[in-house]
Specification:
The chain is elongated and about 60 Å long. It has four helices and no strands. By secondary structure, it is mainly alpha-helical. α2 packs parallel to α4 and α3 runs antiparallel to α4.
Length: 107
């Protein structure tokens, strides 16, 4: 990287893009949770559908908590730390489990 390019780089842009990506992720999770509730309540709630809906909502809350923690970390300092593997794994597991619960509610 040239010295001119390094001098022109704004280190504030990457955390901002990452923060916006986490916001989009939580918005997508919110839509999935709302659709899960709608699907579970459509045509009368069954016990299995209610359990699936509750699980989707719990996973959504977990993802929301992880995203909020990461956004807080990104805005707390000029040089935010890297995402820990524990948080990344938890975010992936919440996302995949939400997708599985949503698919189970549809079928």
């Amino acid at each position: 990287m040239s010295e001119a390019a390094a001098a022109g780089r704004d280190p504030g842009l990457q955390p901002e893009r990452t923060r916006l990506a986490w916001r989009r992720t939580t918005l997508s999770g919110t839509v999935c949770a709302v659709l899960a509730v709608k699907t579970a309540l459509h045509g009368g709630p069954s016990p299995a559908a209610l359990v699936g809906c509750a699980l989707c909502c719990a996973l959504w809350l977990g993802l929301l908590s992880l995203a909020h923690h990461r956004i807080r970390t990104l805005t707390s300092s000029d040089t935010p730390g890297a995402l820990t593997s524990r948080h990344a794994t938890a975010a992936v597991l919440c996302t995949v489990a939400t997708a599985v619960c949503g698919a189970a509610l549809v079928f």
